[in-house]
Hints:
Number of strands: 9
Shape: globular
Strand content: 15-25%
Radius of gyration: 20 Å
Structural class: alpha+beta
CATH topology of the largest domain: Jelly Rolls
Largest sheet: 9 strands, mixed
Distance between the termini: 37 Å
Amino acid sequence: MECKGLAERQAPFVKIDMTSKCIPLERLNREVNLINPFINRISDLYTLRGLETVSRPHRLNFSALIYITEGQGVHYVEHQQHRLRTGSMLILGKNQIHAFAKQRAVDGYVLSFDCSFLSSGNTDPYFDLLLTAMGHINCVHHVDDDIGLLFNAMVNEFASTSEFKDEIIRNLIRSIILKAVVPSYQQQLQSIQRIGHNDYYRLKKYIDEHFQQRPTAGEIALALGKSIKQLDKLAKDHACLSVKELVDERVLVEAKRLLAFSQYSISDVANRLGFNEATNMTKFFKRHTDVSPKDFRQLCKMGLHQK
Length: 307
């Protein structure tokens, strides 16, 4: 059963502002979505929103899975080009920047959702694992055929009137991630420890919401009701980084996004990221990348989609 196209019903997305200096932001329209996730066809997005809009790099304020059912093509996530074919799946996290190709050569499903929807409760034993895997894997180049069956089942469920609709869709999304994304993450990491609570998710969420203030490990520990030692162990177990390194990593990611995809000056970028002076950001950026912000921006302009 095919899902209805966006042209046949109101779009679930707020219109993207393409005129400001900042990176265009796409968000879910909660008033339209009776349930949190939303599924649609890639071809419908091209038809409804137009080539210029879908192919311009834009930020998501939600997560998404893009599953290719036919064709071969490319998709851009951050600064990387991913080559897609039938059976490929892209995993896009909240705040990531992506763009469809300027010429549509593939079709498939785009599933949009807020990660909080995936949780089955406070004692969910897999929620941290789901979130961590999605945070580290952007593309699985070929998934098993049963993933396609799960997407088809989800399309049917979106059209159902069952009182259990939300729970069925939640479990279908979790199944797709556990079957296709988590194994890729485990293979990449070689080993992973699972914990029975959502502490790592809370840590990552806090950093994601406050990184512009450059919080110290002590400030984060106080806010989360943990000791610095506990948080550092949590960060080491899940990301092999300290809490400070997690903060620096998030700041660096945002700096790259703003330099590559926005029209803000380097001084504006530094100010938005909590640096007192642009020179301090330059030192920070060069320490982590070996290039200056100015040179990085120029490299992106020369070959943004060639990596």
